[in-house]
Every structure is written in C-alpha cells, then in structure tokens.
C-alpha cells in the first residue's frame, strides 16, 4: 500500500457567497461559480461545492429544503429527482468536469428520514457516488456554539469512495473529519485525497479547522481538502470559510479567507509517493500489536 496509482489533477474549491433562503437563487450562484472555475487554465478536473449550499444551514430548514436523490449510476431522465440534483448534473455535464456537489438535505421518500448528503457527478452528468454525513454535528459550547443536527437529520451508515481517471477519492462531510477512522480507512483503500464539503463556524473554525486537516493528511499521507461556504453576516450560522487544501506532508497548499472565492490546487501524486517512501509509516504498521481498522473494507 506504500505507493498509490493516480495521475496529477487540478482541484477547485468553490467557497460560495451570496447564499440566501432562495433555493433557486443558490442554484444560480453555484452554476455561475462552476462555469467560471471551468474556464480557468489549466482547467480543473474536479470541482467541489460546500456543505448545505442550497438551503440555510439550520435544523429548522433541512426538511423544507430536502429533495429526492436517485440511486448511484442513475443517468439523465431515467429517474425522478430534485431540482438541485438536476442542476448539479447539468453543471458537471455542461462544463465537462467531475463535480463533488457539496451537500444538500436529502429526503428518503420511503422512511421520511432527512440526511445531509453529498452527491458526485462525472463529466457526463451521471451520479457516481452518494455520501450521507455519518457523524451528526451535535455540540454545545455554552454561549458560543450550540447545534443539534440530530433534531432533524439521520446519520448515514456507510463510508464512501469513488474512482476517477485520476485516482480514487474519499468523501466525508464536515464533522466527519473529527473521526480519524474514516480518513484512515479511505487511505488504506488507496485514496489519493479525502475531500470534505464543510461548514465549521467562527468558534470551532479557529480552534480546529486547519489542525484537523493537517492531522488527517499527515497521519495518512494523503491530500485533504475542505470546502466551506463564505461567511454571511446575516446568517443564523456563521460559516468559518477558509476553504483549504493540505498536502501529504501536512503543508497548507492554499487557503481562502472568509470571503466568496474559488481556490485551486494541483494534486501531485509524486509528492504523495515520495512522502510515503521517505517516511515509510504506511508499511511499518504493527497490526500484530493493534488491529487494522480498515481490514474489513479491503
Ligand atoms: N458543522 C459541522 O458539521 C462540524 C463543525 O462545525 C465542527 O466540527 O466544528
């Protein structure tokens, strides 16, 4: 598992601003940002949207904004789906890019449960992966930040990776990054990067946003990226911003401020493999002393 087979690729993180309570306006904002990022030279191969970008990030809003997400593999006009899913298919296909569609509230019609769900599209607009946020953001830092996603949301039950022509990618959503097992399992499955649509806040962002990404990157010798919405002074939840990409050495390659912007990073697989060669922890694990948590996924 020391080295990884992948190709260099360019990543774009869209730190969307001007998000409002209008879903259709938010879709227009995302559509315009994907179009603009796709015009950059060299063109990004993989574009990422932030967590919950089509709805306010509020437990009281998730059900109202939720929509149907079809099954992995579904293509155009094959299935009934929500307007945001349809728009993301178009964004990927019209711009010829892979798209990690941040996350949106998803309604499961059968169970009536709501999930915080990331969908991924290939450049034909085919839905290739779905990740439902596994660890719900239930925290209480008195006087500073209280949030209880579990008031409305149900946690996902599986881990998610997907294959692209430039390598395997692992997915998590925001709070998922605090649980190191997910990134470790993805790395041992051969992922070149863990990518997390996210929305930390102005309390937990300064504490842990950078530290967590650098930790996941160094522990697993992979790239790590988090894509946040921009800060919005009128929103009930103040997103931290600071979308970021960290390399396998733990260096911050690029970081946004809290304003609306797009950041780009070139993923260098040689650097990943050189890091693993020079610091060979991936082949020095002592599974005779402690268990391999990834075993059942390999
Ligand atoms: N919003 C989240 O899911 C997580 C977060 O803000 C944090 O972990 O801090």
Could you please describe the fold and organization of this structure?
The chain has 298 residues and is α/β, with parallel strands linked by helices. The protein contains six helices and 15 strands. The protein has helices spanning 23-38, 62-65, 83-95, 180-188, 204-220, 269-278, and strands at 9-15, 46-48, 98-100, 104-107, 114-121, 127-132, 138-141, 145-148, 160-164, 167-171, 191-197, 223-227, 244-246, 252-255, 261-267. Helix 1 packs parallel to helix 3 (83-95). The mean pLDDT is 96. The chain binds ligand LQR7VSFR. Residues 137, 174-175, 178, 199-201, 204 line the site of the ligand NC(=O)CC(=O)C(=O)O.
Specify the CATH homologous superfamily.
Carbon-nitrogen hydrolase
Task: Give the uncertain stretches in residue-range form.
Answer: none
Q: What's the total helix number?
A: 6
Give the overall form.
globular
Which descriptors apply to this entry?
alpha/beta; 25% strand; hydrolase; globular; 6 helices; single chain; Nitrilase/N-carbamoyl-D-aminoacid amidohydrolase; 6-stranded mixed sheet; omega-amidase activity; 298 residues; binds the ligand NC(=O)CC(=O)C(=O)O; C-N_Hydrolase_sf; 23% helix
């Amino acid at each position: 598992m020391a080295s990884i087979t992948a190709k260099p690729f360019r990543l774009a993180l869209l730190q969307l601003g001007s998000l409002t309570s209008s879903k259709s306006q938010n879709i227009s904002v995302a559509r315009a940002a994907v179009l603009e990022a796709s015009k950059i030279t060299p063109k990004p191969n993989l574009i990422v949207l932030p967590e919950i970008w089509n709805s306010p990030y509020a437990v009281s809003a998730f059900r109202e904004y939720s929509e149907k997400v079809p099954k992995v593999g579904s293509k155009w006009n094959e299935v009934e789906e929500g307007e945001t899913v349809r728009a993301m298919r178009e964004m990927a296909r019209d711009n010829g890019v892979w798209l990690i569609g941040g996350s949106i509230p998803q309604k499961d019609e059968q169970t009536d449960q709501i999930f915080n769900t990331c969908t991924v599209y290939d450049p034909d607009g085919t839905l290739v992966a779905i990740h439902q946020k596994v660890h719900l953001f239930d925290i209480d830092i008195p006087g500073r930040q209280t949030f209880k996603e579990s008031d409305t949301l149900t946690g996902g039950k599986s881990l998610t990776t997907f294959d692209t022509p430039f390598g395997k990618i692992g997915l998590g959503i925001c709070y998922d990054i605090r649980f190191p097992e997910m990134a470790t399992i993805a790395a041992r499955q051969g992922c070149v990067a863990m990518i997390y649509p996210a929305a930390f806040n102005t309390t937990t962002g300064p504490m842990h946003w950078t530290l967590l990404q650098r930790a996941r990157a160094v522990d697993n010798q992979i790239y790590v990226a988090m894509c946040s919405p921009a800060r919005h002074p009128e929103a009930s939840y103040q997103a931290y911003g600071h979308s970021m990409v960290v390399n396998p050495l733990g260096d911050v390659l690029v970081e946004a401020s809290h304003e609306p912007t797009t950041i780009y990073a070139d993923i260098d697989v040689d650097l990943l493999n050189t890091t693993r060669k020079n610091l060979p922890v991936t082949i020095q694990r002592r599974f005779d002393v402690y268990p391999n948590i990834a075993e059942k996924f390999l």
